[in-house]
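Could you help me review a protein record that somebody else here produced? What it holds is a sequence and that sequence's fold in token form. I have pasted the whole thing underneath without changing anything:
=====
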Amino acid sequence: MTQNDFNQQLLTFLDRSPTPFHATENMVAACVAAGFEVLQERDSWSLKPGGRYVVTRNQSSVIAFTLPEDSNAVETGFRMSGAHTDSPCLKVKTNPDMKGQGYLRLGVEVYGGALLSTWFDRDLSIAGRVSYRSDKGAVKHALVNFERPVGTVPNLAIHLNREVNNGVAINAQTHLPIVLMQQEDDAASFNDLLIAQLKVQGVTDVEEILEHECLAYDTQPAALIGFKEDFIASARLDNLLSCFIGLKALLDSNQEVPSLLVCNDHEEVGSLSASGAQGPFLQSVLKRIAGTEESYQQMMAASMMVSCDNAHGIHPNYASYHDNNHAPLLNAGPVIKLNANQRYASNSESSAWFKLACQQSGVEVQSFIMRSDLACGSTIGPITSAELGVRTIDVGVPQFAMHSVRELAGSQDAYKLYAVLKSFNALKEIV
């Protein structure tokens, strides 16, 4: 696969995955197309040598794994990569209707650490999961996606706030409701609009909306931009970029070593959920593969996790926010993320193995350490490492505008990290 082919598939994946539910659905579809068997957590599993399997939880987290024909996963351990399916955004409230001044607006909550100023004056759509009572009285669930621009958060004119360019405090309750349409106060509700959209999508048995998890998203398509197309611009690069890289690396690996991809939901809000990295999903799957507690412990001791979450590339307009010795450049290769206080799980051992995979794939590698006078973010890496007791490294593609409604990464870096993860998935033994 060429870099251009890879990037075109990446752009399509980004556009088709406006929510964790849609991202998970698309990853499962790619696995099924590649011959993976879909497992259900409530069923008993009969795993076979040479098998390829995929399982989901909450429709928003996914684990896919492969087993070699002639390798014992307990002895060899797994080559694991991890990412997260969620991104900071505006989440529609349960009872969102705000009517007045002749408009229907939607009340929203801020999900995660969103860069709020970037959400104004964008062409927004809405997607997510709807739970409903069917015309036969059953509780059912369906994904919804309006796909077209259906709302916006308009800025206040500068004439009404002359000091806006000196900075303005954004009030999430009063400034961020999404303007949907002009209408009389007794006209359509958001639930009415959901039912109508589900009918358009072929879901015709909705009697009543019981609950929904709907997110706003920017409809501007992902694109290669820059005078020489040096950059990828898109929503949700953090962290669907890593999800796609890990998925492609797993699907294209030679399957001679046990390999696994986990993409968890809820990383942007702390990972503490049944489907988050601090929940039991991954450990549960690995224990079912191992069979016994002792076999599980042996398997973890022989395994390694590469936690993939985007890194902060040095911004040319804000270079002073970086440590000059740890200032990653876009299109200069993946970044190892380090932190003395264990906000990242990387250490000298796991870094050495990752650097070996980089050498074997002919890819340069960079490092990132936050300025000592600035606070550091975190990832699923330390959580997964602590939960499983598995050696772990935190890496990522460098990017700008992290947590913006539209982020920016290098057009070469995703393909480079894909090559490294393929090499990592082929490491025969990690000791």
User: Anything to note?
Assistant: The longest strand covers residues 206-218. The chain has a mean pLDDT of 96. The radius of gyration is 22 Å. The CA atoms of residues 251 and 281 lie 21 Å apart.
